[in-house]
Specification:
The chain is an alpha+beta fold. A hairpin with a 3-residue loop joins strand 7 (132-138) and strand 8. Helix content is 58%, strand content 17%. It has helices at 25-35, 40-67, 101-128, 156-174, 182-194, 199-220, 225-246, and strands at 12-16, 19-23, 72-77, 80-85, 88-90, 93-95, 132-138, 142-148. The strands form 3 sheets. A 4-stranded mixed sheet has the order 1-2-3-4. A two-stranded antiparallel ribbon has the order 5-6. Strands 7-8 form a two-stranded antiparallel ribbon. Bound molecules: zinc ion.
Length: 248
Amino acid sequence: MFDVSSPTRFDLNFSVAGIPVRVHPLFWVIAILLGGSSSPLLILIWIIAVFISILIHELGHAFAFRRFHVRSQILLHFSGGLTIPEQAAWGGGYTSVGLTPNQHIFVSLAGPFAGFAFAALILVFGSALGGSIIVSPLLGFISIPMLWMPAKLSFLNNVFTIFLWINIFWGLINLLPVYPLDGGQVSRAIFIQRDPLDGLVASLWLSVIVGGALALGGWFVFGSLYMAFLFGMLAFQSYQTLQAAKRY
Ligand SMILES: [Zn+2]
């Protein structure tokens, strides 16, 4: 089901609390592109922040799997992170792990909420160093907390802003009901639980509509090519899955 690229000799392999982590070399390229800065120091901070934040997000999923006695491994690659549960043998082949819908929802939410918890720790740490928490409006209608450090620690402003932005903003984006984002997994589990026959199709339509609306809004309202491309692609993928699902 997952397109996991095969190991390369430039992979970085390590494990956190017994959970194997593999970092594909292309992950670093994406981390650099996301930073989009011309200052080498800021690019370096971005890479470190993206690496740590995505790792924490995926560890949230992995520890949630472990809670339900499912082993998993983490892969950081060119389109972000992935926590892959160990497949269970089923008949002649393999199937995804036998979690209940509520366990699936818990595992999906554990990623974004690990990021929110990390952001909260940063806010506590920054305040302890004498920083003030300010609320920064984002896209006009949501506000996210940021830290403003005293003059002698002002070099930390960029570091904290990048970490808070990634962990809060990306966490919120991930909660949108668009497949295969975490929010899309949650809405799928809820829809299927309510209607085992047509729930999957309904969740895919929701994914097409919300993804399409965000692509259009991203382009026309916020002028963001990135948002338009990302959500346009996800909406289109959901539409394709919908067409395939109808044939059965
Ligand atoms: Zn996730």
